[in-house]
Amino acid sequence: MRDLTLSCVLALCLLGAGCATTPKMSPMQFRQISTRLIDAGYHNTFRATMTVLQDNGYIIKDTDMDSGLITAEVNRETSGFSQFLQRVGYDGEIKNKGTLVEASAVVSKISNTNTEVRITVQERTYSSSGGTSQVKQLRDPETYKRLFDDITIEVKRREAMGR
């Protein structure tokens, strides 16, 4: 009887843990992971940000050095085999034809030696009809940390080269 009670308690704990949801991130919490202060001048940081986006496969779509805005995107089309499997599983409709990953960065001068960078990344999934089936903002702290670490390294590399 004791083993049965213990098993029931354990099962309820596991069930409760499986149903736990990740707390939603507030706008302020998201701003904290998507913004970083870089110890470098504005022009160097702006150019380093563009370089890192390009190194990560993004195509720069627009830049404006005066406002500090950089927009970029990378198109990740779903493979033909994956589209075939979707057709078989979804009555001939392709639910995910591809994903467009869009990134925007705002680079702001704080002082002659400090610049703030804020990056936002979103994924737009397309259906077979070409319409948008899902848009979600990327909120993974590790992704933003990696981008900012790469920007910091690129800034230092550029400084070492006298740029």
Distance between the terminal alpha carbons, to the nearest Å? 75 Å
Which CATH C-level class is it?
Alpha Beta
Could you give me the name of the CATH homologous superfamily? Kinase associated domain 1, KA1
Q: Name the structural class.
A: alpha+beta
CATH topology: the name is TATA-Binding Protein
Strand content: 25-35%
Order of helices and strands: HHEHEEHEEEH
Instruction: Give the count of helical stretches.
Output: 5
How would you describe the oligomerization state of the chains in this entry? single chain
Give the gist of this structure.
It is built from 5 helices and 6 strands. It has helices spanning 2-19, 27-34, 42-55, 80-89, 141-160, and strands spanning 35-38, 59-64, 69-77, 98-109, 115-126, 132-137.
Describe the protein:
- The protein is α+β, with helices and mostly antiparallel strands.
- The chain has a single domain (25-160), classed as 2-Layer Sandwich (TATA-Binding Protein), CATH 3.30.310.80.
- It is 43% helix and 30% strand.
- Strands 1, 2, 3, 4, 5 and 6 form a 6-stranded antiparallel beta sheet that branches.
- Helix 3 crosses helix 5 (141-160).
- Residues 1-22 and 78-94 have low confidence and may be disordered.
Question: What's the arrangement of secondary structure elements?
Answer:
Blueprint: H1 2-19, H2 27-34, E1 35-38, H3 42-55, E2 59-64, E3 69-77, H4 80-89, E4 98-109, E5 115-126, E6 132-137, H5 141-160
Antiparallel strand pairs: 1-5, 2-3, 3-4, 4-5, 5-6
